[in-house]
Amino acid sequence: MSRSDTAVRSPRQRGGRAAHPFLRYALRRVITSLLLVVGVTLVTFILTNLVPGDPVAAALGQRAAEDPAIVAQFRAQYGLDQPLVVQYFTYLGNLLHGDLGVSTTTHNPVASDLAKALPATLEIAIGAIVLSVIIGVVLGTIAAHRRGKASDHVLRVVSLAGLSVPTFWLALVLYYVFYFQLHIAPGSGRLSSDYTTPPTVTGMYTVDALLVGQLDTFLDAMAHLFLPVLVLTLYTVGLLTRFVRTAVLEVLDQDYVRAARAKGLPGRTVIWSYVLRGASIPILTVVGLAFGSLLSGTVLVEAIFAWPGIGSYAYQAASHLDLPGVMGVGLLIGVMYLLVNLVVDLLYGVLDPRVRLAS
Amino acid sequence: MVFRSTPARVAIAAAAVSLALVATGCASGKTDSADGSTQTLTIDKTFDLKTADPGRMYEPTGQLVDKALYETLLTFEGGDVSKVVDGVASLEQNDAATEFTLTLNGDHTFSDGTVMTADDVVFSLQRVIGLKGNPSFLLDGVTVTKKDDKTVVLTTATPTPALPAILANPALGILNSKVVKENGGTTDETDTAEQYLNTHSAGSGPYVLDSLDLASQVVLTTNDKYDGDKPAFGRVVIQNVEGATQKINVQGGSADIALDLSGTQAEGLGDSVAVTSDPSANVIFLLLNQNPSVSAITSNPDFVKAVKEAIDYDDLVSIAGTGTAQASGVIPSMLLGALPADEKLTQDLDAAKADLAKSGYAGESVTLNFPSDITLNGLDFPTIAQRIQSQLKEIGVNVELAPAPVATELDAYRNGTETIGLWYWGPDYPDPSDYLVFTPGNVVGLRAGWAEGANPAISTLADAAAAGGSTDERQSRFEELQTALNADGPFIPLLQPGNNIAAASKVDNVVYNAVWTLDIAKLGSK
User: Fold this and answer.
1) Average per-residue pLDDT in chain A?
2) B189 and A73 in contact by Cβ < 8 A?
3) Quick one: pLDDT at residue A196?
4) Is the Cβ pair B407, A320 closer than 8 Å?
5) pLDDT for the residue numbered B360
6) Which of A61, A158, B412, B441 keeps 20 to 30 A from B86, CA to CA?
7) Is the Cβ pair A63, B133 closer than 8 Å?
8) Do the chains contact at A214 and B25, CB–CB below 8 Å?
9) What residues of B are in contact with residue A203 (Cβ under 8 Å)?
């Protein structure tokens, strides 16, 4: 019996009052994700506290760290004088109220720090993933379609190069060429220094500038997005091209594709309606993973382009042993990964009924 | 209403955005420019910014920002930090350096128009003490009292000749007490004014705080009520940028000043950029642990002597690049009490080999600990450590490098458990008394396993230097102390890495100051 046959005897069709299969599937995925979030909090907490080094010494200046009164006050203020188990459960309890603690570096609530940093990262990560998917799917499909030909080899080499080149180095080179030599791109940062930050609505300067009708600010913010997005795109597109090529090659060998061709359907129709649809689930999986890695992998790119996103925040928190900051970033990235995976899982269910029914 | 097709939704969304744009008009987010009063100056700096609240700030970026926002009782002129001059007050002190009378000179006005009084001074200094923040130690043991509306008296139980230099620190900037109190300010730990002071300033300095983002940028605009000369730049943007990007930015024109270029980055920047290079006030040194239970090798005086003689100091200066100087002693060259350049340590390989033989060293490995992830004035520690390793190899000393992130290595350093350590000391305040920590039984001495009583002769010299006296007396006592430290101490002063400031051609009067790096208000516009 094939998996799809089970749909014939699904509870709803039998007249039962159970939820729609997709809803049950979605609910199960959401509950699993919530449990994983708790797991993420435990892992980040343990890892953060395993790091050798005294956060008090790192946070206080040389002189202040030698004053027992100041040290005691600091420990009490950040709850570091409590046993680790108590600290963890306090952390969990506070999390339920959306409280991620207070950064020992910035003295701000970690949640507000991250709320400010996340839109900056999302702005480049979304731009990069959209471009990467478009370019990666097109190039990967072309490579698969022309398997073994010169263009296939060239695309494979190019995608391998994209994956292998260190993003830090690539960012510096592109910055030097496009900004300094060619004057095509603006300087670092999210806006030129003679522009004021648009009023915060989403935290994404391009969107916020549009919302208040500051077209010149919008264009300046877009121009500043160009290089960081390009670097991240070059990094991600290599991965996607290779993966799409493999996925498309597998589908090209399927009987239903051969049948479609045998019927005389135009090549474009076969590719878009049959091949890519068939390859969509593996492609979706890798897009989800790539987006997650973009979020956590922007540290060096953000450093080069003076981009105040979560990558910069993570680096700053880690180098100052800012435990609440490190845990906050770890949790945020973990949750973003889970969210992306959840969305991908749910899309599986939409794209392929066998998935939701099998689960 | 149900929109069934995706194109329909897209069209509606596009129309909504268009409507919003039409409704709001096409505003501009650009600031005024072109005329001198609103000319923007952009400064690239690698941030270590935690706050703009003077009572809690003690990092270089904070000093740079707060110097522009707040005036201090006393100050320094230009780059000369060896001599204190009047700030908002003039100073009279007793011979014992235990009583300091500060009289406000003229009418200094805060940015809201309020005139500064002795009450503001007392509140500001007492707040720094009471907050128990990073800069609190500056006023350890100091009592602040108001004598009259224009006069404040500071008293200390023991001689504190460094206090005038300390009072020039931007962390001791004078706040508008009325405004700060209205926003949660107190003189104890219940103070909640930091948030206010991170969004507004409450000072009498040449600039006011327009906006502050600890991660990305600080924007300053001029203070119309400032008592002194109007700054050349009406708007200043200080942005957080890494060193490698700073170089490209200042060359390309998107930044006017780059503050964190290494010696090698500062070379060959082209004609459009002027570089001001000075030795910084940071001193990079080696410590050799004197505690035999930590290391029988490094606690041997002949071994210490051999290492001092084996190091090629000129080579270290050359790899550090523009602006770098060999440190003559632990006190940097621009401070009172610095040793003359001709008394610095020099390489003598024959003597080194002889002393090493005398020490009984038999080729064992000795560990060199250093922070692997910090750069100081663009100079990274692993480069220096590797060079020292190869230099000591020449006389037969086997050094094993042990890099670690600064956050973790600090523990071993502070606990005095490193065999050989490579570290630096930046002055807490520009006075030689800050360097008494390098003597037996004191903070850095203990980190080198040098306990109280380990070298009575040096302790006697340190006591004499601490006692105060005239400027000349202090100069000679601190010189004497450092000569003895160079001869018999466990520290090897290596470098004062160069502080390189690159400025675009439109900016002049760039002067490096060891306390606040740059006085932004004193910069000129060509």
Assistant:
1) 83
2) yes
3) 87
4) yes
5) 95
6) A61
7) no
8) no
9) none
Strands (DSSP E) along A152-306, which ranges?
A: none
Domain that holds residue B412: 283-496
Question: Are B245 and B502 within 8 A, CB to CB?
Answer: no
- Same-domain check for residues B159 and B243: yes
Structural domain count, chain B: 2
Count of beta carbons in the 10 Å neighbourhood of residue B20: 13
* C-alpha to C-alpha distance for B483 and B29, rounded to whole angstroms: 59
**Cβ contact B25–A213 (<8 Å):** yes
Sheet of B273-279, strand order: B207-213, B217-222, B235-240, B40-45, B257-261, B498-504, B273-279
Within 8 A by CB and 6+ apart from A9, the residues are none
* B163 and B288 within one domain: no
For β-strands B80-86 and B74-77, DSSP reports them as antiparallel
- Please tell me which residue, B474 or B37, carries the higher pLDDT value: B474
Q: Where are the beta strands (DSSP E) in B105-156?
A: 142-148, 151-156
Clarify whether residues B60 and B80 are in a common domain: yes
| Subunit contact A53:B407, Cβ cutoff 8 A | yes
Q: Which residues of B305-342 are buried (b: 16+ CB within 10 A; e: fewer)?
A: bbbbbbbbbeebbeebbbbbbbbbbbbbbbbbbbbeee
List pLDDT tens digits, range B136-149: 989 999 999 999 99
Same-domain check for residues B56 and B147: yes
Compute the 3-state secondary structure of chain A and give helix, strand, coil in percent, each to the nearest 5. Answer: 75, 0, 25
Cβ-based burial of B138 (10 A; exposed 0-12, middle 13-18, buried ≥19): buried
Of A107, A198, A213, the CB nearest to B21: A213
Interface residue of A167, A188, A208, A299 to substitute, partner B, most B CBs within 10 Å: A188
- Apex CA A305: angle with CA A223 and CA A161, to 5°? 95
Which chain A residue is nearest to residue B138, measuring alpha carbons? A63
Pair B382, B404 in one domain? yes
Give me the amino acid identity at B454: A
Between A319 and B52, the more confident residue is: B52
Nearest to A175 among B50, B213, B248 (CB): B248
Is the CA virtual torsion A310, A311, A315, A318 positive or negative? positive
* A residues 184..213 contacting B (CB < 8 A): 186-198, 209-213
Exposed, middle or buried, A73 (CB in 10 Å: 0-12/13-18/19+)?
middle
Interface membership of B260 toward A (CB under 8 Å): no
